[in-house]
Amino acid sequence: MAYSYDSENIFAKILRGEIPNDTVLETEHSLAFRDIAPKAPTHILVIPKGAYVNFDHFAQTAPEAEIVDYIRAVGEVCRQAGVEDDGFRLISNAGRHGVQEVPHLHVHIVAGRPLGRMLAAD
Ligand code: 5GP
């Protein structure tokens, strides 16, 4: 599938500095910041700086250096947030069935309380 990227999405605006964010980590190719509507005591979003719609788009087309940087950034944020002992959940929603609200790849890191089962049954 060929993805088309909407450069007016809210995370693109954050990357351009048009909208403020609460940054927790910035690397050469990635940015991590707190979710504006946290669902748990720790709720951090990690995004690549490149224009990728979702995980599949990124995995198919990003240079290896960006992929390595991004995966390492997710791990680094977990360690910085101190959630590796009690645990955490990574979520990356994509498309209509994934109920993706912002069409720029992001991983949610949620942690800080027991998170319940992975999905509701409905
Ligand atoms: P999605 O449903 O696309 O996986 O998640 C999008 C996430 O982005 C939501 O958890 C939402 O709270 C968060 N979000 C939406 N707009 C903003 C914003 O302007 N700033 C920040 N920090 N988070 C946002």
In brief:
This protein is of the alpha+beta class and 122 residues long. The protein is 25% helix and 20% strand. The structure holds guanosine-5'-monophosphate.
The CATH topology comes to HIT family, subunit A
The CATH superfamily is identified as: HIT-like
Q: Give the percentage of residues in beta strands.
A: 15-25%
Q: Give the total of beta strands.
A: 5
Bound molecules: guanosine-5'-monophosphate
Could you estimate the helical fraction of the residues in percent? 25-40%
Cα end-to-end separation: 28 Å
Mean pLDDT: 97
Counting DSSP H or I runs of 4 or more residues, the number of helices is 3
Report strand order across the widest sheet: 1-2-3-5-4
What overall form do the CA principal axes indicate? globular
CATH domain class: Alpha Beta
* Spans of at least 5 consecutive residues with low confidence: none
- CATH architecture annotation name: 2-Layer Sandwich
Q: Over all CA atoms, what is the radius of gyration?
A: 14 Å
InterPro entries: Histidine_triad_CS (IPR019808), Histidine_triad_HIT (IPR001310), HIT-like (IPR011146), HIT-like_sf (IPR036265)
GO molecular function: catalytic activity
Protein name: Histidine triad (HIT) family protein
Organism: Roseivivax sediminis
Task: Tell me what you see in this structure.
With 122 residues, the chain is an alpha+beta fold. It has a single domain, classed as HIT-like (HIT family, subunit A, 2-Layer Sandwich). 25% of the residues lie in helices and 20% in strands. It is built from 3 helices and 5 strands; from the N terminus they run H-E-E-E-H-H-E-E. It has helices spanning 10-15, 55-61, 64-81; strands at residues 23-26, 30-34, 42-48, 88-91, 107-111. Strands 1-2-3-5-4 form a 5-stranded antiparallel β-sheet, with helices on one face. The longest helix has 18 residues, at 64-81. The protein is globular, with a radius of gyration of 14 Å. The two termini are 28 Å apart. The relative contact order is 0.22. The site of guanosine-5'-monophosphate has 13 residues, from strand 2.
